Amino acid sequence: MPSTNKGPGKAYRKSISHRRFFQLFPDNAAAERWFVEHRWQGGIRCPHCGHDNIQTVCKHPTMPYRCRKSKMGGCGQFFSVKTDTFMEASNVGYLDWLYAMFLVTTNLKSVSSMKLHRDISVTQRTAWHMAHRIRKALAASDGDLFAGPVEVDETYVGGRQRNMSNARREALPSGGASHMSPVVGARDRETGRVAAEVVEDTTDPTLQGFAKRQVIPGTAIYTDEATAYASLPNHDAVRHSASEYVRGRVHTNGIESFWATLKRAHKGTFHRLSPKHLHRYVDELVGRHNFRDMDTLEQMAYVAAGMDDSRLRYKDLVA
Ligand SMILES: [Zn+2]
After folding, report:
1. Cα–Cα dist 10/293, whole Å
2. Cα(235)–Cα(222) distance, rounded to whole angstroms?
3. C-alpha 84 to ligand 1 mean position (Å)
4. How many angstroms is it from 47 CA to the middle of ligand 1?
5. Which end of the chain lies in a sparser environment, N or C, as judged by fewer CB atoms within 10 Å?
6. Interval between CA 74 and ligand 1 midpoint (Å)
7. pTM above the 0.70 mark?
8. Other residues' Cβ atoms within 10 Å of the Cβ of residue 199
9. CA–CA separation, 187 and 79 (whole Å)
10. What is the pLDDT of residues 129-182, one digit of tens each?
């Protein structure tokens, strides 16, 4: 019987089977072509210097490209599609990397390093590193800034107090959310995308800093009445303390439903985690939320967009 509780759009999500995966990617060369197409969508660029005058060299065993030296620049170095990505310095072949991406994106919650290790015959240690790097790329693929309207809110997620160092426990404010870590998040109403970060504190500079990094200047921002947000530009707030939850377009219901998901996942799956790993799981849940309506190949392309370590990101520029 078909499931009836699928959200809008999800019924059309195309997932591909393992059999179909190997029809699409029968060998290493096919997988390498896929990586080349998705890493360099506007044509091959040198990862060392950014030039696009590239020569294909057939005789090099692992570095098939060379940046042409010319008067226009170019550094003359050899590279491959692995250079400056999560695949760099790994002996694992392209097909195994792509299959690992397929497994991680289609089983984000449950793929274990044990399963990867069995399915692609690498050591469990290598499998753990591969899964970790793929999840990191997924989190790094944060795409465009939010154009809004954008809801911004913060919440507290519990790590257990006994997993916390004494220094950290003492640094916490007394009372209230004493064993919890603050997380600040934003949701773009136009695209449904979310962003979230574990933060040290909930002071004005921290919360506003997050909001300003995440949105295009001029974007309408909605929050609750927390004073930390009060001086944000283009900002409007609902007054939860006065039992006001929605005033026309002004509400934070979207980001709050993401918090509910985060807390459920944390309770069910991540309850053994110490707070120092919380950010990884927040990243992972953000990634899962943002690509939940894509089909499998789109999800893999989304991960590929985050694999380029040499890519300049807006976050790094303003940090
Ligand atoms: Zn170069």
Report:
1. 6
2. 6
3. 12
4. 7
5. N
6. 4
7. no
8. 17
9. 38
10. 888 788 778 776 666 788 889 999 999 987 554 444 555 555 554 444 457 889
